[in-house]
Amino acid sequence: MTICGIAPGGRRLLRIFLLVAILTFTYLYFFSRPHYNQIPNYAPLRKTDSSSKVAIATFLSGGEDPSAPVEDDFYFQAARTLTYQLLHDPKTRSKRADIPFLVICTQSVDISRIERLKLDGATVHVVDDVPLPFWISTGVTRWKDQFTKLRIFEMVEYERVLFIDADTLIVEPIDGIFDELMVQTPMTTLLHRTSEVKSDEKPLPINYSFAARSDNAFSGERDHPFPPPPTESFSAGFWLAAPSREMYDYLTSVMQNWRRFNPHTMEQSLLNYAFRRNGPMPWYELGWQWSATWPSMRDFEGGVKTLHEKWDRTGPEELGEKWQRVKSEMETFQQK
């Protein structure tokens, strides 16, 4: 006699089969998949002080039309203007004379532009492109070049590097940022956030340094309040990090995972993923006085030291005129 059409012997076999299937699935899920193995005391950083070797850096690619006249190459002119502001302008140059200004250039930057930047006083580094997997693409012109900024993490001759986009108006000297406690003191990696530590990414350093400013695009754009509130994401136009080859390896390993971040905003999305607030290496918020995106006169009058905008096409007219005046001062200074 059978119950539900299955003989007693068959029911026992079915139960055994289901038990084996459950045990097999459990083993495959928990034991056979890759596990994250943290290396003890991996890639430690040291606390910096006023004698530590630091640098300020920006980025320059070949532009949309490398053959265009230099006067029409906005970002080249912006890099020259930023060089002048940080190294020569008495109102804004670094108070510490030992802080170099680096211009990270792609291979596509014309040699004449490189030589001009050197004459202006910049320390130029021509670096290789960062290899990208097939899934990372966007409609932005020369989007691949933006990931070249990651080469900064390989510049381990410096203990801290402040990155600033070239189209930045400097209002006051900014080298004091290297004296900030959060910049000098490495941040402990939060390995107890186990759900955010990924086994398909390279090991995380035991500590790290990454600080940035909230992006005002998420707090009202031009109408953001002052001081602006913190936001979930930071702007990749102003950030400070500790170079580390291990950190570079980690960042490039993230890119090997399909859609681990949204590639639309390129390296900004990658960095916001790697240093996400709920992750094992959350980014630290620099004070509002250091930088502002979507700048307004409220930011300028309130004492923000750097204002980031595409001054050739947008931004408050009064601030754009200030940037143009500094650019003219640069041209006069460099003709001497």
Topology overview:
Elements (H helix, E strand, L loop, with lengths): L7 H25 L21 E7 L13 H14 L13 E5 L5 H10 L2 E4 L33 E5 L3 E3 L10 H4 L2 E2 L18 E2 L1 E5 L19 E8 L3 H10 L12 H8 L9 E2 L6 E2 L3 H6 L3 E3 L8 H18 L2
Parallel strand pairs: 1-2, 1-4, 2-3, 8-10, 11-12
Antiparallel strand pairs: 4-9, 5-12, 6-7, 8-9
Helix pairs in contact: 2-3, 2-8
CATH class, please? Alpha Beta
Largest sheet: 7 strands, mixed
N- and C-termini, Cα separation:
107 Å
Helices and strands, in N-to-C order? HEHEHEEEHEEEEHHEEHEH
Give the count of helical stretches.
8
Shape: elongated
What is the CATH superfamily classification?
Answer: Spore Coat Polysaccharide Biosynthesis Protein SpsA, Chain A
Structural class from helices and strands?
alpha/beta
Gyration radius, in Å: 25 Å
Which percent bin holds the helix content?
25-40%
The count of DSSP E runs of length 2 or more, i.e. the number of strands, is 12
